[in-house]
Amino acid sequence: MKLSILDQAPISAGQTARDALVESMKLAQAGERLGYKRYWIAEHHDLSGLACSAPEVMLSYIGANTSEIRIGSGAVLLPHYKTYKVAEVYNMLATLFPGRIDIGIGRAPGGSAEATNALSDNYLQQVWNLPNLVTDLLHFLDDDYVTDNQHASLSAAPVPDISPEPWLLGTGKKSADLAAKKGLPYAFGQFMSETNDLAIIQQYKDQFQPRKEGQKPEVILTVSCICAETNQKAEEIALSSLIWSLQKEKSGGKNGVPAILDAKEYLQNEQNPDVIDVLKQKVIIGDPDRISTKLKELQKQYKADEIMIVTITHSPQDRIHSYELIAKELIDAV
């Protein structure tokens, strides 16, 4: 089974943002050692407890500290930016790290309304214009963009020998439709989706229009997992992430991912403890056998080409160990 990593660069209680970013680099190194195909890091803006606002900066750091694993953005929030500059940045990365760069494209704001306004004066307009933005970006990445009479051509230099691989990320029908029309591989965020997931994936495959000769639809299914040696231990470790999700809904989760003991104490004082069961519905929690069984079921159900895993724990060691246990069960090379 092809497995990959999605990292949201969470900051745990007691950590600094720098600590979290260093741990992200260590996670990418571990992913490479364990045989994960790719490592993507997410983009967020002014969200407490998440450290990465500039994936392109982190990818330089991670690329310099790894040698084989594909690395990329999950995602570049394209409505905030000019496509030419995005192409320049990812062409630069692809020049530095040949054959390893992915550019995931998303439309979400990635932060508060205030952060969105600070990043872009016309974000909503650009969301509506996303199909055209994607077209422009693809032309720049393919180095075939002709602008107007003032310029014979415009290249997003440096033009790498191997272009970044573009992906479209999403959780709904609009993103699936756009990926199909643009002939892009599609990364579906199952762990965030609230809709009929299977219908969305099938829609993408049915409507897919190849951008290049021989191209076929390709799907990454992104899921949330926490694995430990026993189901009981996994449930205990997962409580930190679940409580943090609850804290973010109530007060922003400004103190970061809580320690397990603090999470247990918080749950004891929670007026509606059943809410944890609701949060668990989007997380796969368990020992290696349980996780393996569930991921195999999901891959078969969705006919996914690849499974991408996001794991949030308080302890960086618990996070890497979770990926280790899953890799030993499912990655052929391990």
UniProtKB/TrEMBL annotation:
Residues 1-300 form the Luciferase-like domain. SUPFAM superfamilies: Bacterial luciferase-like. To bacterial alkanal monooxygenase alpha and beta chains. This is Luciferase family oxidoreductase, group 1. PANTHER family: LUCIFERASE-LIKE MONOOXYGENASE (PTHR30137:SF19). GO terms for molecular function: oxidoreductase activity, acting on paired donors, with incorporation or reduction of molecular oxygen. The lineage of its organism: Bacteria, Bacillati, Bacillota, Bacilli, Bacillales. It holds the Pfam family Bac_luciferase. It comes from the Bacteria. One of its GO terms (cellular component) is cytosol.
